[in-house]
């Protein structure tokens, strides 16, 4: 079975190609940037290029995108060209060539301003039922592309799935305050409680989505590590998260003390992956408790696949005041 992976020089694209090739699938990786897992170099905004790449393909995985780190370095038109026109090109060519499953990689960033509670409110319990309130051109174009996928499933019969992934990038956080307060591994470990996922689990979700799309029809799923929290924890998480974590993951403090780490004092949101687990049969392996067990045994917070893919950055140039510039 031939499969197409967009953005194959990026984190998730490479991870998908690596995994699919490792299980014997014929894969075409495409990207605007050359790379060891990219077979064809070109832009998804180029309809003719997309047409040549997609011929004979049964499944399309579409992680290629301009990301949040590009908001301060690219124009809004760039985002429209890549995230919307590029997705439209892929969808139209997928219908023309008879693609069986189309899996679109979206982001929890589409929730935008809905993720920021007032200071007196409990943490936000984030499920697929929450309305998207994008706060920048990245979120707007990702949400609109999701709707394009739904449109093509409903009107053209293309089996599509949308996976809203939480953070899995290995690069440093763009928040200068967070970088000053925590080491990078400490910050990422904290995030596994509520807003991070390992790339190995993201890949497994994509493979299940491709398999289940023809049977389930259009779906949107949150893809994030399984949180140990319940809704009754939300008020406590805002004011004293360490107490809640101690109750839900006994023994974490010893691991943190061993590494000299600090737990976040407050947590403002919790991504909930229950629907993906129930409907896709997804079983993510890398949650906070699993990380504590691995660290206690001298392991790494990253899966083997995450370590193989490594860090790529988002720009060709290096910035002196952070991993990338942030829009003011």
UniProtKB/TrEMBL annotation:
<dbReference type="Pfam" id="PF01370">
    <property type="entry name" value="Epimerase"/>
</dbReference>
<dbReference type="InterPro" id="IPR050177">
    <property type="entry name" value="Lipid_A_modif_metabolic_enz"/>
</dbReference>
<feature type="domain" description="NAD-dependent epimerase/dehydratase">
    <location>
        <begin position="3"/>
        <end position="212"/>
    </location>
</feature>
<dbReference type="InterPro" id="IPR036291">
    <property type="entry name" value="NAD(P)-bd_dom_sf"/>
</dbReference>
<protein>
    <submittedName>
        <fullName>NAD-dependent epimerase</fullName>
    </submittedName>
</protein>
<dbReference type="InterPro" id="IPR001509">
    <property type="entry name" value="Epimerase_deHydtase"/>
</dbReference>
